[in-house]
């Protein structure tokens, strides 16, 4: 049975930097995905994770420099699909990757990914997904074993297979993302991706050449040791889901386990880091 989500519709004035800060704070307390609009954004959280006091510790809501109001409603999967289909526009990354819905025309780029993301995070529109695609494009993945942790729609695993990776594991703790990734893997004719529902506990005794983890900062900090243990020597770890100011705390944790920062990409203050295991 698919999870039920609550949508918080935030109206923000002025939009920036309040929107950026609020999205970051909401990510830390369990909100999973965000859809920005001209008045602010809608933030989605699983109903079972929603609590009456969940916004009490959100600092920016107490800041009188900004006017922020919100309403909330329960979101059914079919409603999300309808809204997504009306608002989802195809995107392109570096003139090499197209990410589109089945009803969009094929721009005939080198890598064409067709998805229907439902509630899943990772349409390619968010800065973190966009940057992870850029990192993957630079990697030689031929014959490499790859993990996409927190796979969302499965986009990153799909692109990795298109670049020659095999075999691949895609894992997400959310049932909706798990089901959606299965659908998108089949839709893109991928045959080497195994999709699992769960968390980092599934990684015991697993080994990979490349690990991709686009998740919020707190989960990454908790799981970096596990990722390091699962990486083969000279393996690559790609991390995103946090801001540039979070790099020192991420770097302090990765350095404990022999991971060296090789490269980072920044996009609207979001970052994606590439680590090498020595």
Automatic annotation (TrEMBL):
Q: Name one GO cellular component term.
A: ribosome
According to its UniProt record, this protein's enzyme class is transferase
Q: Spell out the molecular function terms from Gene Ontology.
A: methyltransferase activity
GO biological process entries: methylation
* Catalysed reaction equations from the record: L-lysyl-[protein] + 3 S-adenosyl-L-methionine = N(6),N(6),N(6)-trimethyl-L-lysyl-[protein] + 3 S-adenosyl-L-homocysteine + 3 H(+)
**What's the Enzyme Commission number for this chain?**
2.1.1.-
Domain of life per record: Bacteria
Transmembrane helix as a keyword of this entry, yes or no, is no
Physiological role: Methylates ribosomal protein L11.
Protein name stated in the entry: Ribosomal protein L11 methyltransferase
Task: Record the organism.
Answer: Aureibaculum flavum
Q: What is the lineage of its organism?
A: Bacteria, Pseudomonadati, Bacteroidota, Flavobacteriia, Flavobacteriales
Which gene holds the coding sequence for this protein?
prmA
């Amino acid at each position: 049975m698919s999870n039920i989500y609550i949508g918080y519709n935030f109206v923000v004035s002025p939009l920036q930097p309040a929107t950026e800060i609020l999205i970051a704070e909401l990510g830390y307390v369990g909100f999973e995905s965000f859809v920005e609009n001209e008045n602010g954004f809608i933030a989605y959280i699983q109903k079972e994770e929603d609590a009456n006091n969940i916004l009490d510790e959100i600092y920016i809501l107490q800041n009188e420099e900004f006017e922020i109001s919100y309403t909330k409603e329960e979101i059914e999967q079919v409603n999300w699909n309808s809204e997504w289909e009306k608002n989802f526009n195809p995107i392109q990354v570096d003139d090499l990757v197209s990410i589109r819905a089945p009803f969009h025309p094929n721009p005939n780029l080198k890598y064409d990914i067709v998805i229907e993301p439902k509630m899943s995070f990772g349409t390619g529109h968010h800065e973190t997904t966009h940057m992870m695609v850029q990192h993957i494009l630079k990697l030689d993945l031929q014959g490499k074993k790859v993990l996409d942790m927190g796979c969302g729609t499965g986009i990153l695993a799909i692109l990795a297979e298109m670049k020659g990776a095999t075999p691949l594991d895609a894992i997400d703790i959310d049932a909706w993302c798990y089901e959606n990734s299965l659908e998108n893997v089949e839709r893109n004719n991928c045959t080497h991706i195994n999709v699992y529902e769960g968390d980092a506990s599934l990684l015991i005794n697993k080994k990979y050449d490349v690990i991709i983890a686009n998740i919020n900062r707190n989960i990454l900090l908790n799981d970096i040791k596990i990722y390091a243990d699962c990486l083969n020597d000279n393996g690559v770890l790609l991390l995103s889901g946090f801001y540039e100011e979070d790099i020192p705390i991420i770097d302090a944790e990765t350095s404990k386990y022999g991971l060296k920062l090789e490269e980072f990409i920044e996009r609207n203050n979001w970052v994606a880091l590439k680590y090498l295991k020595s």
